[in-house]
Amino acid sequence: MSQKIGIIGAGAWGTAMGISLAKKGQEVELWALEADVVESINTVHENKKFLPGFIAPENLTASADIKKVASGKDFLILASPSLYLARTMKGLLDVPNIADGSTCIGILTKGFIPSEGSPKLILETLEGVLPESYKKNLVYIAGPSHAEEVAMGKVTGLVAACENPRNSIRFREALRSKGLLVYSSFDVIGVQICAAAKNVVAVAFGCLDAIAEKSDVFGDNTESLLLAAGLNEIQIIGRAMGATHPETFTSISGVGDLDVTCRSKYGRNRRFGHDIIQKNILDKFSDLDDLIARISEIGYLPEGAVACKYVHQIAQERNLRLPICNGLFRILNKEMQPAQFIQEILDGMEI
Ligand SMILES: NC(=O)C1=CN([C@@H]2O[C@H](COP(=O)(O)OP(=O)(O)OC[C@H]3O[C@@H](n4cnc5c(N)ncnc54)[C@H](O)[C@@H]3O)[C@@H](O)[C@H]2O)C=CC1
Ligand SMILES: O=C(CO)COP(=O)(O)O
What is its EC number (predicted)? Predict the structure, then answer.
């Protein structure tokens, strides 16, 4: 039976998910901030700005009216970048099917949300904003899933994490197709940490990858060393923040997503690491706060740069030893030259 699905955020990932769902026959409406994105999806069935080259079925439509997109939907999928997610959600609280809790909500965003105290996880933040009935009922969806490959229908595995198994199963059934395999998890904290922190490691990986291209000292072996040490740091953060299932880190949402984000040609965090070394992209920013405030000037979205600020704060507050994440923080904050970076983190990391 066709279900009504709204997607908030027509970037590459929201659009690719919309294409996948529409191909399944679901009725999908996408909210786009940009008028030209609405226009291009509704006329030529392509998101020319964020996912060019992929044609959507006609049952995927777009609108600039966010409340209309959220209204009357069985499922609502949030796909905004972490910087805008909480603000965007607050604009939807008076939509009747959200106010009464009848729409099942899933989140695709990867990152942390700043707060007055310690940075928060996404579900924790949204639970603080949404009606009480959404507590323990939001579904967090992550895994190794570059938008381009999902839009192509390449076989992809996702994890739907929720403390209420009824909701993860509802999302699993709604999303799954021949190309999209969806598994359930109860470890909402572990899956969120993996999704946010792997982006930080992937920026560091991109730096190493660019350095290794011209190096007699670093190569593929060194990259695997960084990847394994990065997974170790992700586990340290996860354990400190309350991940409940150790196997999350070795699942597709852990090592799987870390691997694809570090190694895929589509990876933007990896690309950002490359651009730090090859294009001196940090030259135009004074420090990490300046970079985050002007992130759109990069021209693509490296969530790992934003998450790095919050991982650093969490590490300081909880006294966590994270040489890769903290080393990258010092680079992005202009406290250390990229050239020093790799050797320093290799000297300091533990596997
Ligand atoms: N692209 C991918 O392959 C995947 C992305 N994700 C995650 O999905 C989230 C969204 O990423 P993408 O779709 O790739 O983004 P994108 O880089 O393709 O698009 C940027 C998005 O930001 C929105 N935006 C810009 N300024 C805004 C504002 N002031 N208020 C609200 N929205 C604003 C744009 O409308 C657009 O939807 C991120 O957290 C990302 O880590 C997760 C898995 C895969
Ligand atoms: O989360 C992703 C893949 O699972 C996307 O990673 P990038 O943002 O680095 O492209």
Answer: 1.1.1.94
Cα torsion for 75, 69, 145, 171, to the nearest 10°? 0
**pLDDT tens-digit series, residues 12-38:** 999 999 999 999 999 999 999 999 999
pLDDT digits (tens, 9 = 90+) for 287-341: 999 999 999 999 999 999 999 999 999 999 999 999 999 999 999 999 998 878 7
CA-to-CA separations, 275 to 220, 282, 286, 306, 340, in angstroms, rounded = 19, 8, 16, 16, 16
Cα atoms in the 13 Å half-sphere on the side-chain side of 47: 27
- Determine which residue's CA is closest to atom 29 belonging to ligand 1: 84
Task: With beta carbons less than 8 A apart as the criterion, state whether 275 and 261 touch.
Answer: no
Residue 198 annotated in active site: yes
Q: What is the pTM of this model?
A: 0.97
Q: Which amino acid is located at 325 in the chain?
A: C
Site of tokens 């909880």: 318
Burial, 275: exposed, middle or buried (Cβ in 10 Å; 0-12, 13-18, 19+)?
buried
Sequence ranges of the binding site for sn-glycerol 3-phosphate = 110, 143, 145, 198, 257, 268-269
Residues annotated within a binding site for substrate: 110, 268-269
| 132-179: pLDDT as tens digits | 999 999 999 999 999 999 999 999 999 999 999 999 999 999 999 999
Q: Residue 150: nearest ligand to its CA?
A: 1
Catalytic residue among 24, 73, 120, 198: 198
